[in-house]
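Homework help board

Subject: predicted structure for assignment chain

Our instructor gave us this sequence and asked us to write out the predicted structure in C-alpha coordinate form, then describe one feature. I got the C-alpha coordinates but I'm not sure how to describe them. Can anyone check?
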Amino acid sequence: MGRKIDMKKIEDITKCQVTFSKRRGSLMKKASEISICCDVDVAFVVFSPSGRVSKFCNQKRIEDVLTKYVNLSPDKRLSQCYYMKGKMEKLDKLKHIRSDNNKLQYLDDQ
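My C-alpha coordinate output:
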Protein backbone atom coordinates (compact mmCIF):
# COMPACT_ATOMS: atom_id res chain seq x y z
CA MET A 1 0.00 0.00 0.00
CA GLY A 2 1.25 3.50 -0.80
CA ARG A 3 2.31 5.91 1.86
CA LYS A 4 0.17 8.90 2.70
CA ILE A 5 1.44 12.35 1.88
CA ASP A 6 0.08 15.71 2.89
CA MET A 7 -1.73 17.53 0.12
CA LYS A 8 0.08 20.82 0.05
CA LYS A 9 2.04 22.83 -2.47
CA ILE A 10 5.53 21.50 -3.15
CA GLU A 11 7.85 24.45 -2.74
CA ASP A 12 11.02 22.84 -4.12
CA ILE A 13 10.92 23.48 -7.90
CA THR A 14 12.75 20.27 -8.86
CA LYS A 15 10.55 18.08 -6.67
CA CYS A 16 7.47 19.84 -8.00
CA GLN A 17 8.45 19.17 -11.62
CA VAL A 18 9.26 15.50 -10.91
CA THR A 19 5.95 15.00 -9.06
CA PHE A 20 4.05 16.77 -11.83
CA SER A 21 5.64 14.61 -14.49
CA LYS A 22 4.86 11.34 -12.68
CA ARG A 23 1.29 12.29 -11.82
CA ARG A 24 0.60 13.67 -15.28
CA GLY A 25 1.58 10.33 -16.76
CA SER A 26 -0.66 8.47 -14.33
CA LEU A 27 -3.61 10.75 -15.05
CA MET A 28 -3.18 10.36 -18.79
CA LYS A 29 -3.09 6.60 -18.42
CA LYS A 30 -6.30 6.71 -16.33
CA ALA A 31 -7.96 8.99 -18.89
CA SER A 32 -7.11 6.51 -21.63
CA GLU A 33 -8.36 3.56 -19.57
CA ILE A 34 -11.72 5.14 -18.76
CA SER A 35 -12.25 6.17 -22.37
CA ILE A 36 -11.65 2.58 -23.52
CA CYS A 37 -13.44 0.71 -20.72
CA CYS A 38 -16.52 2.93 -20.61
CA ASP A 39 -16.60 4.13 -24.23
CA VAL A 40 -16.77 7.79 -23.21
CA ASP A 41 -15.28 10.97 -24.64
CA VAL A 42 -12.34 12.24 -22.60
CA ALA A 43 -10.40 15.47 -22.88
CA PHE A 44 -7.57 16.10 -20.45
CA VAL A 45 -5.57 19.34 -20.53
CA VAL A 46 -2.91 20.29 -18.01
CA PHE A 47 -0.30 23.03 -17.83
CA SER A 48 3.06 22.25 -16.24
CA PRO A 49 4.62 24.53 -13.61
CA SER A 50 6.76 25.94 -16.43
CA GLY A 51 3.68 26.63 -18.58
CA ARG A 52 4.00 23.79 -21.10
CA VAL A 53 0.71 22.20 -22.13
CA SER A 54 0.02 18.46 -22.16
CA LYS A 55 -3.21 17.02 -23.45
CA PHE A 56 -4.97 13.74 -24.04
CA CYS A 57 -8.08 13.10 -26.06
CA ASN A 58 -9.55 9.81 -27.24
CA GLN A 59 -11.08 11.55 -30.27
CA LYS A 60 -9.14 12.75 -33.31
CA ARG A 61 -9.57 16.38 -32.28
CA ILE A 62 -9.68 17.66 -28.71
CA GLU A 63 -11.67 20.62 -30.02
CA ASP A 64 -14.62 18.31 -30.75
CA VAL A 65 -14.84 17.16 -27.13
CA LEU A 66 -14.35 20.66 -25.77
CA THR A 67 -17.04 22.00 -28.11
CA LYS A 68 -19.39 19.31 -26.83
CA TYR A 69 -18.78 20.59 -23.30
CA VAL A 70 -19.09 24.27 -24.21
CA ASN A 71 -22.38 23.60 -25.99
CA LEU A 72 -23.95 22.18 -22.82
CA SER A 73 -26.40 24.50 -21.16
CA PRO A 74 -24.88 26.46 -18.27
CA ASP A 75 -27.20 24.62 -15.87
CA LYS A 76 -25.80 21.24 -16.93
CA ARG A 77 -22.20 22.44 -16.71
CA LEU A 78 -22.62 24.01 -13.29
CA SER A 79 -24.79 21.31 -11.73
CA GLN A 80 -21.89 18.85 -11.80
CA CYS A 81 -19.58 21.44 -10.22
CA TYR A 82 -22.04 22.10 -7.39
CA TYR A 83 -22.54 18.36 -6.90
CA MET A 84 -18.78 17.80 -6.54
CA LYS A 85 -18.39 20.83 -4.28
CA GLY A 86 -21.03 19.39 -1.95
CA LYS A 87 -19.27 16.02 -1.88
CA MET A 88 -15.93 17.66 -1.09
CA GLU A 89 -17.48 19.68 1.74
CA LYS A 90 -18.92 16.47 3.24
CA LEU A 91 -15.52 14.77 2.99
CA ASP A 92 -13.87 17.72 4.75
CA LYS A 93 -16.32 17.37 7.63
CA LEU A 94 -15.30 13.74 8.06
CA LYS A 95 -11.60 14.46 8.59
CA HIS A 96 -11.99 14.91 12.34
CA ILE A 97 -13.79 11.56 12.78
CA ARG A 98 -11.39 8.68 13.34
CA SER A 99 -13.25 5.38 12.89
CA ASP A 100 -15.11 4.27 9.77
CA ASN A 101 -18.17 3.29 11.81
CA ASN A 102 -18.37 6.77 13.31
CA LYS A 103 -18.04 8.29 9.83
CA LEU A 104 -20.94 6.17 8.58
CA GLN A 105 -23.01 7.16 11.60
CA TYR A 106 -22.22 10.82 10.97
CA LEU A 107 -23.32 10.51 7.32
CA ASP A 108 -26.53 8.74 8.34
CA ASP A 109 -27.36 11.59 10.71
CA GLN A 110 -26.99 14.19 7.97
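Reply (TA_rk): Your C-alpha coordinates look well-formed. For the description, you could write something like this. The longest strand covers residues 43-47. That's the kind of observation they're looking for.
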